[in-house]
Amino acid sequence: MTRVVPRPVPTADNAPFYDAARRGELRFQRCADCGTFRHYPRPVCSRCLSRRFSWERVSGRGEVYTWTIVRGPTLPAFEKELPYAVIDVLLEEGVHFVSRLVDDPPDEIRAGMPVEVVFEKLDDEITLVKFRRRR
Amino acid sequence: MSVPTIRDKAAVVGIGQTRFARSLGQSETEMAVEAIWNACDDAGISPRDIDGLVRYDIEQTDEEQMCELLGGPSIGYFVGTPFGGGGSASVLAVAASAIAAGMARHVLVYRSRARGKSSSYGRGRDQGGRYWEKLGTDLSGLNQWHVPQGLVSAFQEMAMISQRHRIEYGTTDDQYADVAIAFRQHAMRNPAAVMRTPMTREDHHASRMIADPLRLYDCNIETDGAVALLVTSLERARDLRRPPAVIRAGAMAAGSHHIRLSNLFARDPNAESAPRVARALFAMGDCAPADVDVAFFYDFFTSMVILALEQYGFAPRGEGGPFVENGGLAWPDGRLVCNTNGGQLSEAFIHGLNNTVEAVRQIRGTSTSQVDGCRLAFVAGANTDPTGAVLLASDR
After folding, report:
1. What is the CATH code of the structural domain delimited by B10-121+220-394?
2. What are the Cα distances from residue B164, in Å, to A64, B137, B158, B180, B295?
């Protein structure tokens, strides 16, 4: 049986995020008036209500804000990876991004642990944004 | 000119439920009808008298079908509250609004759920069983940000939120156990509860870790069942057979949702839905958390009860953990007796509405863990959703 992985379907609001990830870049919307970065993608800045924004490349560096170690049950697509660590990364630019910690044993996660972005190609359209420990 | 308010305008006059079980082998429609009939019998009104419907927007039986099930086309007012458990108390606030505005005379509120692990009313995502096993593989909504990373269900999202509370405040496994054990003790006195075997601290700690820091015994149970409530004006309620559970106050607030964690973690905690609901609710009720005799939190996870105590103003921020220690939530002598039916951790998982039915029993004086002289009950929806809460009070 083939392993069916749930995949994002880009929309008009968020396609630039996925286009960037496919090129190996992490980009978020940034307000052109007050400079605040934001995620999830939306056409207005919640801080100043400006509708002017750009998709700006960010450092890809951040720290673990919180996490869970998924031990199951989970979807069949992820069962072979159990246990795995899902993390919320607070990026240097101030946005939160929910992702997966790769490479390191989940039990070594600590709050504030420095991480950096890595890109994992899922298919021709979608590249997932994940993170690894930054040493 | 008086300020428009729903305060003391409406009351719950009928409650009904099905059996609760891991699996009942019935459709959600069948269970709904049984609970509704029981509520009508309790109130002493006919299903044909129901002219208003306020339900969770994910209820599977629609208004057209309800006309048939209630024996005639009498329904004039019908709305749904969103966000599942987030709307579990809002339904009563909306029902009271309809009564206060003269939009309906007898409003039916119910929830029917085939939510047992192996139960399913249909293949649709909201038709029973585990919703997250039916998410599909092409995700265009907000699930696209988490599910492909392996964060697939509410219990994992709540684990992330719970972990952050531990990071900030040092919340412990023992405090989680204190919540689970108190509610289990309540369930052991409640013949309708699904989980009635004793639970010790060791049992709690030995239960399987499913998503750190949450163990199996930190999670609500997965059950089938339905509950229903009938709401009418306080004036009419006084002519009916049961002591009215007066809707003293109700409030709703939109805010973060546990599926949208990047927003939730970015926002000011004091501006979130639950603290805003608490401020509006106690202002309308002209009272304070200290006046509450019994409280019902949306106990989908032990850790969320601890957080809710803080968000709704029963404990200072960061002190929800110590608050639950030493039987803090347990009948009869806890600091704040909570979820006396056993809650969703031990009675049944009817999306919070079984807790509301128990709150009505407390006001009537008929709970199996009855709080002496209970005059004011607090009922809250899920605290990490756009949510709502109500205060139920005895009449006079």
Report:
1. 3.40.47.10
2. 10, 29, 10, 20, 25
